[in-house]
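Problem statement: downstream parser choked on a complex file, so we are re-checking the raw output for the KH2 run. The parser issue turned out to be on our end (a line-ending mismatch), but while we're here, posting the original submission so the record is complete.
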Amino acid sequence: MIKKILAILAITLFAASAHAASKLDAIKKNGELRVGTTGDWDPMSMKDPATNKYKGFDIDVMSELAKDLGVKVKFVPAEWKTIVAGITADRYDISTSVTKTPSRAKVAGFTATYYKYATVPIVLKKNLKKFSTWDSLNKNGVIIATTLGTSQEEKAKEFFPKSKLQSVEAPARDFQEVLAGRADGNITSSTEANKLVIKYPQLAIVPDGGKNPAFLAMMVPKGDKVWNDYVSNWIQDKQSSGFFKKLLAKYNLKSL
Ligand code: KH2
């Protein structure tokens, strides 16, 4: 009998402590949702240098999540090379969306996804004849620019094993290396590429199609199932209610 009571007590205590360890409780208690974001990803997360305020698709998503949680939202500046470390070091409760990658998944949890994109290479328009396929960029002597800490940096190793990869550190960007002629190409999401070729008419998308369908999701601390389930269910609810559809239209985005 005593054994049984002790066992029940132990289970209750364990369940209570497991629950208490969730970010969800801390967020509600503190009245604040801390969101890590880089502010350099058009149109996901953009920091306005004039006001130091963030705006963008993911900024709207996080503001809505905080509103539904009944708490304030606080954006914590993050960088691509340390965005995962910010989650493991508890600098924020959640990140704005990042590409799901196996290496990030080793240390951070991913919520449900809400955006799928393809990857395309970008080259100088005047080099389109020389670089008209993915394969043509995978060659000795070809330089591929990447941005440190991004999923594209990881993927470039896979796509271009024969080329030389050159990483730049944010706020510098890979495509700027292509523009400056220091690199032959870079890879990015079709979403960003379409915007870049309008802004910089010297750039062009390599025409032989997108590769590597990738998914965006928010990062949360690994193993916090309560918090991850909460956010993932919230995403699904918001998808059913049409919130994401409206927001995609607002930012002229189209998930694959
Ligand atoms: S990812 C985000 O999660 N991007 O894929 C990459 O690593 C974002 C393409 C850095 C903003 C600057 C745009 C590269």
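For whoever reads this later: The mean pLDDT is 93.
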